[in-house]
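Quick one: sequence plus S-adenosylmethionine SMILES, need structure tokens.
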Amino acid sequence: MKRVLITTSGRPDEVTETRAFAAEQALGYARIPRNKRSVKNLMATNSSDLLVVGKERYELYRQTMSEPFFFHPDTAAFRLKRLLKGETDPLVEMCQLEPGNSFLDCTLGLATDCIVASFAVGATGIVKGIEVDPDVAFITATGLTQFQPKFQELKEAMRRISVVQDSASVFLKGQPDHSWDVVYLDPMFSQTISESISFAPLRHVGVHGSLTEEWVSEARRVARKRVVVKAHFNDPVFEQFGFTQIIRHNTKFHFGFIEK
Ligand SMILES: C[S@@+](CC[C@H](N)C(=O)[O-])C[C@H]1O[C@@H](n2cnc3c(N)ncnc32)[C@H](O)[C@@H]1O
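Reply:
Sure thing.
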């Protein structure tokens, strides 16, 4: 099992101390003093990953990483701006999201897709993100509630999302039949594709693993309108689980859906 320790960036002030305590409580990891040592040095001497607590954000370093994982709305900002201008978004179209819908994101990650879905379903909708990795779940959940975005619509969409740290199939098993309009699945691609700079660290941090029969059948049971998957265009999941694959030219990832 991976070992993670908590430390602070530079000299901690009161805000950083409070945030470090919150991380200790939420994740149950021990804290070590920074004592002006580098992240690399602390990871090497303790043979551990490191959660570095700053005044404004949490940064997670796995021993294999040179760049940290931290929360950022990433492409959600410009996707929302496009929607505000009356343009479309592939996820919103594929999920046929309307105001008031409920959207269950089984693979939250950085919550970029979830933020776009949250904007689309609006204040009367319900959006929940499930994330199996405790560190990712913590960093994304705190980012969604604390990050100060540049425009109000983005802030509201972020604040409306609730996060649950769990494995998707375990969470789905506890949900009644037809209880969510859309169930969305975006597990980590097996193929490497070029992606945004802030998404790349998620590859080292999040859990890799394909969809399973159990996961998809639970998603089908729980969805009222559609189960939607996102995967590399030649990923076998589309055929394996009976998703209708929508071909998008010039993009390496495609969506697929199962209609209810
Ligand atoms: C490709 S990323 C999702 C990116 C996300 N759609 C976004 O917009 O940021 C996949 C995420 O799902 C998580 N994950 C993988 N298997 C999971 C499972 N069985 N249950 C819940 N989360 C899982 C990974 O840890 C990772 O954070």
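The pocket of S-adenosylmethionine is lined by residues 106-107, 109-113, 130-133, 136, 167-168, 186-188, 202, 206-207, 209 (CB under 6 Å). The chain has a mean pLDDT of 94.
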